[in-house]
Design goal:
Oligomer: single chain
Number of helices: 17
Strand order of the largest sheet: 7-6-3-2-1-11
Shape: globular
Strand content: 5-15%
Number of strands: 11
Amino acid sequence: MKKMKNWVIAATLIICSASVITSCSNDDSPVVPTDEVEAQLQQMTLREKVGQLFYVRPECLDTTIHFNLISTIDSSADDIKKIKLQAVNATMLAVNEQYPVGGIILYAHNIEDEAQLATFIPQIRALKGSPLLCIDEEGGRVARIANNENFHQKKYESMGAIGATGDPTNAYECGNTIGTYLKNYGFDIDFAPVADVNTNPENIVIGARAFSDDPAVAASMVTNYLQGLKDAGIVGCIKHFPGHGDTKADTHYGYASTQKTWAEMLNCEMLTFRAGINWGCQLIMTAHIAAPNVTGSDIPSTMSSIILQDKLRGELGYQNIIITDAMEMGAITKQYNNAEAAVGTFLAGADIILGPQNFVEAFDAVVAAVENGTISEERLDQSVRRILTLKRQKRF
């Protein structure tokens, strides 16, 4: 790795001036609500507003499925493979009547081939809540479509291999290629790229999913990948804030932490996240990692107002959507029940609650929290306003 001084100098140049393809003056930042959004917001019921906060896997709408079967985001798990929900069914439609949803995320087991996907996506589009279609298609080992043998899309070795080329145009090409086929299939959002900096060789969850162990290199790759997605008509999402690259454990299964101080993060991970923010990214995904030397506790970053409000919104000036990592992951479910997790992350500053273990319980908990004053209607409207603004940009 380069010396820290070189990191800071190089990354500052990336953030404050034009990079190979992208620039700081991007028309995606910040999202400004329009009169149409305000009019729509005023007409919405409480349940319609709350529904916009939830982006869920299809299985969350089928209450006949035992929720222990989907207690992990790891789509390679045998139980999840066996579910193989690949069409909207009658139960889902009935649940959706009372539980509108803002977005649906598809995993590998939800996708069989092009014909099935072409049938499934219009069914999802027709659900109450006008859900956006989301997917984890980073390239490399996390690619729900490219790694499916029934699809014939370009495969990438890893983002680390792209970063190693030192050429940001390769990151642009990757993002644009992935964005183009996602757009053609009907998706709106790609939960990519990874903006983590791979500084810990013992890291078992990020590794080569990150572009580099050098934040200056990673920053340029991330913004060019984002631009590639944008030019293809897909919204990108940088993850996992405040940085999952210096951890040893995997938050899919339980507690994980970084021991870095905020000052250390500012000289590493935040260089990459700042680059994405200054580029104009519309979505930042939280990490469930604890950062005790920043927050003073073992609370997951997803549940921490210090991380989400004081640092991300306050210090870094981020104005757009904060989305959680999947709330069904072990780092959350081993510490919180569905109600505590959903209400807690929203109070901490998140806008979108991704993949709760039990959608119905989480939804009802947020409704109850608004009704009893734990969550103010003003706070709810702030998040819904951001989400509706993004939807209008995508649809019109």
